[in-house]
Amino acid sequence: VGDTANAVKICMRKLSPKFRRVFYCAGNHDLWIRPDTSDEYPDSICKLFSLENLCETTGQERGSVTMRPMEVARGVFVVPLNSWYHYTFDTYHPKPGGLLYDKFCKWPVNVDDVAEYMLALNGWRLNAVEKRIEEVRKEGLEPVVISCSHFLPRVELPYPHGCDTTEMAKAVGCLELEDQVARLGSQVHVYGHTHINGDGPCGVNSERRYVQYALEGGGSKLYCIYDNGILHGKEVW
Protein backbone atom coordinates (compact mmCIF):
# COMPACT_ATOMS: atom_id res chain seq x y z
CA VAL A 1 0.00 0.00 0.00
CA GLY A 2 2.72 2.48 0.93
CA ASP A 3 6.29 2.87 2.17
CA THR A 4 5.20 4.94 5.18
CA ALA A 5 2.55 4.65 7.86
CA ASN A 6 1.09 7.96 6.72
CA ALA A 7 0.66 6.60 3.18
CA VAL A 8 -1.20 3.57 4.56
CA LYS A 9 -3.39 5.86 6.66
CA ILE A 10 -4.28 8.03 3.65
CA CYS A 11 -5.18 4.93 1.64
CA MET A 12 -7.42 3.49 4.35
CA ARG A 13 -9.18 6.81 4.83
CA LYS A 14 -9.96 6.81 1.10
CA LEU A 15 -11.18 3.20 1.03
CA SER A 16 -13.16 3.10 4.27
CA PRO A 17 -16.15 5.24 3.15
CA LYS A 18 -16.53 3.12 0.01
CA PHE A 19 -16.67 -0.34 1.58
CA ARG A 20 -18.37 -1.90 4.59
CA ARG A 21 -15.13 -3.69 5.50
CA VAL A 22 -11.55 -3.23 4.32
CA PHE A 23 -9.10 -6.07 5.04
CA TYR A 24 -5.40 -5.30 4.88
CA CYS A 25 -2.25 -7.44 4.85
CA ALA A 26 1.02 -5.61 5.37
CA GLY A 27 3.60 -6.27 2.67
CA ASN A 28 7.31 -5.72 2.42
CA HIS A 29 7.13 -2.06 1.37
CA ASP A 30 4.70 -1.33 4.19
CA LEU A 31 7.28 -2.50 6.72
CA TRP A 32 10.13 -0.41 5.39
CA ILE A 33 11.57 2.16 7.78
CA ARG A 34 13.26 4.66 5.54
CA PRO A 35 15.49 7.31 7.10
CA ASP A 36 14.07 10.11 4.93
CA THR A 37 10.48 9.75 6.20
CA SER A 38 8.44 10.48 9.30
CA ASP A 39 8.41 6.80 10.30
CA GLU A 40 10.21 6.47 13.63
CA TYR A 41 9.99 2.86 14.74
CA PRO A 42 12.69 0.82 16.45
CA ASP A 43 12.01 -2.09 14.08
CA SER A 44 9.60 -3.41 11.46
CA ILE A 45 7.69 -5.59 13.93
CA CYS A 46 6.83 -2.49 15.93
CA LYS A 47 5.69 -0.87 12.71
CA LEU A 48 3.52 -3.90 11.92
CA PHE A 49 1.75 -3.64 15.28
CA SER A 50 1.40 0.11 14.82
CA LEU A 51 -0.19 -0.42 11.40
CA GLU A 52 -2.66 -2.87 12.92
CA ASN A 53 -3.69 -0.29 15.49
CA LEU A 54 -3.78 2.42 12.82
CA CYS A 55 -6.22 0.35 10.77
CA GLU A 56 -8.54 -0.27 13.72
CA THR A 57 -8.77 3.45 14.48
CA THR A 58 -8.80 4.92 10.97
CA GLY A 59 -12.04 3.61 9.46
CA GLN A 60 -15.50 5.14 9.48
CA GLU A 61 -16.19 3.05 12.56
CA ARG A 62 -13.95 0.89 14.71
CA GLY A 63 -13.19 -2.37 12.89
CA SER A 64 -14.27 -1.21 9.44
CA VAL A 65 -10.60 -1.35 8.44
CA THR A 66 -8.77 -4.29 9.93
CA MET A 67 -5.88 -6.76 9.73
CA ARG A 68 -7.83 -9.24 11.84
CA PRO A 69 -10.12 -12.12 10.83
CA MET A 70 -13.82 -11.45 10.74
CA GLU A 71 -17.09 -13.26 10.12
CA VAL A 72 -18.58 -10.82 7.61
CA ALA A 73 -21.84 -12.74 7.29
CA ARG A 74 -23.13 -15.84 9.01
CA GLY A 75 -20.62 -18.56 8.21
CA VAL A 76 -18.55 -16.40 5.86
CA PHE A 77 -15.02 -15.62 7.06
CA VAL A 78 -12.28 -13.35 5.76
CA VAL A 79 -8.92 -14.18 7.32
CA PRO A 80 -5.87 -11.94 6.72
CA LEU A 81 -2.62 -13.77 7.49
CA ASN A 82 0.73 -12.24 8.36
CA SER A 83 3.51 -13.52 6.15
CA TRP A 84 7.09 -13.04 5.05
CA TYR A 85 9.30 -14.80 2.55
CA HIS A 86 11.89 -17.48 3.26
CA TYR A 87 14.73 -18.78 1.12
CA THR A 88 13.39 -22.38 1.32
CA PHE A 89 10.63 -21.29 -1.05
CA ASP A 90 13.35 -21.72 -3.68
CA THR A 91 12.97 -25.49 -3.80
CA TYR A 92 15.73 -25.84 -6.42
CA HIS A 93 18.30 -24.18 -4.18
CA PRO A 94 16.82 -23.87 -0.66
CA LYS A 95 19.72 -21.97 0.84
CA PRO A 96 20.28 -18.28 1.66
CA GLY A 97 21.04 -16.18 -1.41
CA GLY A 98 23.55 -13.45 -2.06
CA LEU A 99 21.06 -10.64 -2.63
CA LEU A 100 19.63 -8.43 0.10
CA TYR A 101 15.96 -7.67 -0.41
CA ASP A 102 14.07 -4.98 1.54
CA LYS A 103 17.12 -3.35 3.06
CA PHE A 104 14.91 -0.71 4.68
CA CYS A 105 13.35 -3.31 6.97
CA LYS A 106 14.76 -3.63 10.48
CA TRP A 107 14.23 -6.83 12.43
CA PRO A 108 14.61 -7.65 16.15
CA VAL A 109 15.25 -11.26 15.11
CA ASN A 110 17.55 -12.88 12.56
CA VAL A 111 16.27 -12.11 9.06
CA ASP A 112 15.97 -15.84 8.34
CA ASP A 113 13.58 -16.19 11.29
CA VAL A 114 11.13 -13.47 10.22
CA ALA A 115 8.87 -15.83 8.26
CA GLU A 116 8.52 -18.15 11.25
CA TYR A 117 7.76 -15.19 13.51
CA MET A 118 5.02 -13.96 11.16
CA LEU A 119 3.46 -17.42 11.04
CA ALA A 120 3.46 -17.54 14.84
CA LEU A 121 1.53 -14.27 14.93
CA ASN A 122 -1.26 -16.05 13.06
CA GLY A 123 -1.77 -18.61 15.82
CA TRP A 124 -4.63 -16.86 17.58
CA ARG A 125 -6.28 -16.08 14.25
CA LEU A 126 -6.32 -19.75 13.28
CA ASN A 127 -7.60 -20.85 16.69
CA ALA A 128 -10.40 -18.28 16.79
CA VAL A 129 -11.62 -19.01 13.27
CA GLU A 130 -11.42 -22.78 13.71
CA LYS A 131 -13.53 -22.55 16.88
CA ARG A 132 -16.19 -20.48 15.14
CA ILE A 133 -16.16 -22.76 12.06
CA GLU A 134 -16.90 -25.73 14.32
CA GLU A 135 -19.86 -23.84 15.78
CA VAL A 136 -21.13 -22.93 12.32
CA ARG A 137 -21.01 -26.57 11.20
CA LYS A 138 -22.98 -27.61 14.29
CA GLU A 139 -25.61 -25.12 13.15
CA GLY A 140 -25.90 -27.04 9.90
CA LEU A 141 -24.03 -24.57 7.71
CA GLU A 142 -20.99 -25.15 5.53
CA PRO A 143 -18.57 -22.26 6.17
CA VAL A 144 -16.99 -20.17 3.45
CA VAL A 145 -13.40 -19.12 4.19
CA ILE A 146 -11.48 -16.55 2.17
CA SER A 147 -7.92 -16.16 3.42
CA CYS A 148 -5.38 -13.63 2.23
CA SER A 149 -1.69 -12.86 2.53
CA HIS A 150 0.82 -10.58 0.87
CA PHE A 151 3.29 -13.34 0.02
CA LEU A 152 2.80 -16.56 -1.94
CA PRO A 153 1.93 -19.82 -0.15
CA ARG A 154 2.76 -22.19 -3.04
CA VAL A 155 5.71 -22.51 -5.40
CA GLU A 156 3.42 -23.33 -8.33
CA LEU A 157 2.03 -19.79 -8.29
CA PRO A 158 3.59 -17.45 -10.87
CA TYR A 159 6.43 -15.11 -10.03
CA PRO A 160 9.12 -13.39 -12.15
CA HIS A 161 11.81 -15.62 -13.65
CA GLY A 162 14.82 -14.78 -15.76
CA CYS A 163 18.44 -13.75 -15.72
CA ASP A 164 17.73 -10.62 -13.68
CA THR A 165 15.63 -12.47 -11.11
CA THR A 166 17.71 -15.58 -10.41
CA GLU A 167 17.10 -15.38 -6.65
CA MET A 168 13.52 -14.09 -6.79
CA ALA A 169 12.11 -17.38 -5.50
CA LYS A 170 13.86 -16.73 -2.18
CA ALA A 171 11.91 -13.49 -1.70
CA VAL A 172 8.34 -14.18 -2.80
CA GLY A 173 6.81 -16.80 -0.56
CA CYS A 174 6.75 -19.17 2.38
CA LEU A 175 5.99 -22.91 2.12
CA GLU A 176 4.62 -23.17 5.67
CA LEU A 177 2.06 -20.47 4.91
CA GLU A 178 0.18 -23.01 2.80
CA ASP A 179 -0.16 -25.22 5.88
CA GLN A 180 -2.09 -22.43 7.61
CA VAL A 181 -4.26 -21.81 4.55
CA ALA A 182 -5.08 -25.53 4.41
CA ARG A 183 -5.76 -25.62 8.14
CA LEU A 184 -8.43 -22.96 7.66
CA GLY A 185 -9.98 -24.94 4.82
CA SER A 186 -9.99 -21.83 2.65
CA GLN A 187 -11.97 -22.11 -0.57
CA VAL A 188 -10.17 -19.02 -1.90
CA HIS A 189 -6.79 -17.59 -1.00
CA VAL A 190 -5.94 -14.08 -2.17
CA TYR A 191 -2.26 -13.19 -2.43
CA GLY A 192 -0.12 -10.37 -3.83
CA HIS A 193 3.49 -9.22 -4.15
CA THR A 194 4.31 -10.46 -7.65
CA HIS A 195 1.87 -8.34 -9.71
CA ILE A 196 1.07 -11.37 -11.87
CA ASN A 197 -2.68 -11.80 -11.97
CA GLY A 198 -4.51 -15.10 -11.97
CA ASP A 199 -7.48 -16.99 -10.59
CA GLY A 200 -7.63 -20.76 -10.39
CA PRO A 201 -6.61 -23.96 -8.62
CA CYS A 202 -3.00 -24.77 -7.99
CA GLY A 203 -1.31 -28.14 -7.72
CA VAL A 204 -2.58 -31.69 -8.10
CA ASN A 205 -6.15 -32.40 -6.94
CA SER A 206 -6.48 -28.87 -5.58
CA GLU A 207 -9.93 -27.34 -5.39
CA ARG A 208 -8.80 -24.18 -3.63
CA ARG A 209 -8.61 -21.08 -5.83
CA TYR A 210 -5.62 -18.77 -5.62
CA VAL A 211 -6.36 -15.23 -6.73
CA GLN A 212 -4.28 -12.17 -7.48
CA TYR A 213 -5.73 -9.13 -9.20
CA ALA A 214 -3.24 -6.30 -8.98
CA LEU A 215 -3.56 -2.97 -10.75
CA GLU A 216 0.08 -3.26 -11.80
CA GLY A 217 -0.68 -6.75 -13.07
CA GLY A 218 -3.19 -5.43 -15.60
CA GLY A 219 -6.28 -5.13 -13.44
CA SER A 220 -8.42 -2.12 -14.24
CA LYS A 221 -11.57 -2.79 -12.22
CA LEU A 222 -12.56 -4.30 -8.89
CA TYR A 223 -12.49 -8.09 -8.86
CA CYS A 224 -15.35 -9.82 -7.05
CA ILE A 225 -14.78 -13.32 -5.66
CA TYR A 226 -17.91 -13.73 -3.53
CA ASP A 227 -21.35 -12.31 -4.11
CA ASN A 228 -24.80 -13.18 -2.80
CA GLY A 229 -23.72 -16.51 -1.39
CA ILE A 230 -21.78 -17.63 -4.48
CA LEU A 231 -18.02 -17.96 -4.95
CA HIS A 232 -16.93 -16.78 -8.37
CA GLY A 233 -14.53 -14.42 -10.11
CA LYS A 234 -15.70 -11.44 -12.08
CA GLU A 235 -14.72 -7.87 -12.78
CA VAL A 236 -17.07 -5.27 -11.38
CA TRP A 237 -16.98 -1.52 -11.28
User: Structural class per helix/strand content?
Assistant: alpha/beta
Please give the largest β-sheet. 6 strands, mixed
Query: Which overall shape is indicated by the principal axes computed on the Cα atoms?
Result: globular
Strand content: 15-25%
Helix content: 25-40%
Strands in their spatial order, largest beta sheet: 3-4-5-6-8-7
Mean pLDDT: 92
Terminal residue distance: 20 Å
What is the H/E string?
HEHEEEHHEHEEEEE
The Rg value, from CA coordinates, equals: 18 Å
Low-confidence stretches: none
Number of helices: 5
Care to describe what's here?
The protein is an alpha/beta fold and 237 residues long. Helix content is 25%, strand content 18%. The protein has 5 helices and 10 strands; from the N terminus they run αβαβββααβαβββββ. It has helices at 5-15, 44-58, 114-121, 123-138, 175-184, and strands spanning 22-23, 65-66, 70-73, 76-80, 144-148, 188-190, 198-201, 209-212, 222-227, 230-236. A 6-stranded mixed beta sheet has the order 3-4-5-6-8-7, with no helix packed on it. A hairpin with a 2-residue loop joins strand 3 and strand 4. The longest helix has 16 residues, at 123-138. The protein is globular and about 50 Å long. The two termini are 20 Å apart. The mean pLDDT is 92.
Features:
alpha/beta, six-stranded mixed beta sheet, 5 helices
Helices and strands in order, then pairings?
Layout: H1 5-15, E1 22-23, H2 44-58, E2 65-66, E3 70-73, E4 76-80, H3 114-121, H4 123-138, E5 144-148, H5 175-184, E6 188-190, E7 198-201, E8 209-212, E9 222-227, E10 230-236
